[in-house]
Amino acid sequence: MIRAVRALIVGLGVLVAVPVLAAPGLTVPAAAATPDDEAAGEVINVRLLDEETREPVAGAVVRVLQGGEVVGEAETDDTGLAGFDVPEPGEYDVEVDLESLPEEFAGLTLARNPFTTRVDPGTPRTVALRLVTEGEQVEAGGGISWGTTPQLLVTGLRFGLILALAAIGLSLVFGTTGLTNFAHGELVTFGALVTFSLNSVAGLPLLVAAPITLVLAAAFGWLQDSLVWRQLRSRGIGLIAMMIFSIGFAFFLRFLFLYVYGGGIRFYTDFTGQSGLSLGPVVLRPLDLVSMGLSVVVLVAVALTLLYTRIGRATRAVADNPALAATSGIDVDRVIRVVWVAGTVLAALAGILFTVSQGASYLLGFQILLLVFAAVVLGGLGTAFGATLGAVLVGVISDLSTLVIPAELESVGALVVLIIILLVRPQGLLGRRERIG
Fold first, then answer.
1. Which helix (H) or strand (E) holds 45?
2. Three-class SS state of 58
3. Exposed/middle/buried for 85, CB within 10 Å: 0-12, 13-18, 19+?
4. Which ranges of 29-148 would DSSP assign to H, the alpha helix?
5. For the chain, which residues make up each domain, given as ranges?
6. Could you report the per-residue pLDDT of 348-388, keeping only the tens digit for each?
7. How far apart are CA 271 and CA 55, in angstroms?
C-alpha cells in the first residue's frame, strides 16, 4: 500500500511538473509565478468587472488602504486584475478611483467604495468588484434591480452548466463506489492549472493545451484508481476511512498546487479582453457562448453514453446494485476504473472553462466544492441526471440571489433552497427513496 501511494505521488508530480518545465529557460516549478505571487501569502487580488456585461475593466486605478493610509496602488490589467502585496494580515479597504475609469465605463459606480476585506495569515484574498449604474444597488448590496434579471439568468445558467461537468463525476463515483470524494474539487483545479502551464508558460495555444490537459487528466484518474482506491477497496477499507483519506488527499493536492503555482490568480493568454455581444437584454462574450455550447454538448454526450452504450448500461447497473451486477457478468472493477477516468476528465474540463471566465488559483476547486456537493445532493445522490439538474439550479439560484443579497453571499441562496427541497423531498429531485441512509 505504501508503495502504491508513493507511486501515485510520483505520478502526480510528473503530471504537474512536466508542463511547467516544458517552458524554455524555466528551471524551477515556482518560476511560473509572477513577482506579486511570491509573497508569504499576504496578498490581495482585486478584479474589476462591469456588472451588466461581465466584461473586465482595464486601466482603472485601484488602491489598498490600511487605517486610512495607502499601502498599494495599481492599475487593472486587460483581465481587470490588480494584485497587491500587503504588509500583514488584517482588515484593508479596497478603493477604486472612479475618475480613472475608461470612457466606456464613465458614470458607473460601485455598491461599496471603499470595500472592506480581511486578509488571513498565509491565504491570498481575492476581491471581485462590479461596476453598476448609479442607484442600481444600495450600499449593503440588497437593493433589487429587475433590469439585470435576464443577464443574471444567463450567467447563472452558464455557471450551472460548467458546475454540472464537475458534479457528474462526483455523482458517478458515489453511485458506483459509495465514496464521498472530498478531493474532487482538486481535480477541477488540476485541469485549470495544468492548462495554464501549457498555455501561458509553455506557450501552446489554448485549443491545443486543453485537449492535452484532458489526456493528462484521464491518466491521473486511472492512476488514482489503480494505485489507491482499488487497493483500499480490495483490502476491505470502510467508506468512512476512505472518505477521511480523500480529505487528506485533497489537502495534499491543494498545497502541492500552492507550492508549484503560488497563490495568485492565473489567466490564460488566449481570448483575454473579449468584447461582449449584445443579445437583447443580455450581453455575453463569444467565449462565454462557446463554453456554454461545449458544456451542453458534453453533458448530452454523457447522457447518451449512459443510456445507450454498453459501458453506460453497465455503469448504471453497478450504481444500482454492485453485487447483482457482478453476478450477471459485469466487471465491476473495470466499470469503476472507467468512472474514475471519466469523472476526472469532466472535472478537469470544468476547471478549464471556469478559468476562462474567472481565472484560476490553487483554491479554485475548494471554493466550488460545496456547490458541487449541493448540486449532487439536490439532484439526488448517485444519479448523473440529477447532478446535472441540481447544478443548473444551483448556478441560476446563486446568481439570481444577488438581486436581494450581497454578491459575496451568492452561494447562500442556493444552499437555502437545497435545505428547503430536502425537507420536502429528502432523496433529492431525481433520487430514489431507497438511497436514503
1. strand 43-50
2. coil
3. middle
4. none
5. 42-143, 151-435
6. 999 999 988 777 888 888 988 988 998 888 888 777 888 89
7. 12
Taking a C-beta distance cutoff of 8 angstroms, is the pair 60, 74 a contact? no
Q: Quick one: CA torsion of 224, 230, 236, 239, rounded to 10 degrees?
A: 40
Instruction: Collect all residues with Cβ–Cβ distance below 8 Å to 120 and sequence separation of at least 6.
Output: 89
Phi, psi of 158 (to 5 degrees): -60, -45
Amino acid at 72: G
Q: Please give the CATH architecture assigned to the domain spanning 42-143.
A: Sandwich (2.60)
Q: Are strands 115-119 and 90-96 parallel, antiparallel or unpaired?
A: antiparallel
The set of cell numbers assigned to 106 is: 464613465
Position 299 scores a pLDDT of: 94
Preceding omega of 114 cis (within 30 degrees of 0): yes
Among 220, 185, 204, residue whose Cα is nearest residue 351: 185
pLDDT of residue 77: 81
pTM for this one? Answer: 0.75
Query: DSSP readout, 312-361?
Result: HHHHHHHHH-HHHHHHTT--HHHHHHHHHHHHHHHHHHHHHHHHHHH-B-
Q: Quick one: CA torsion of 10, 12, 13, 19, rounded to 10 degrees?
A: 140
Q: Which residues of the chain have pLDDT under 70?
A: 1-41, 52-54, 121-123, 134-148, 272-277, 406-408, 431-437
d(CA 151, CA 116): 27
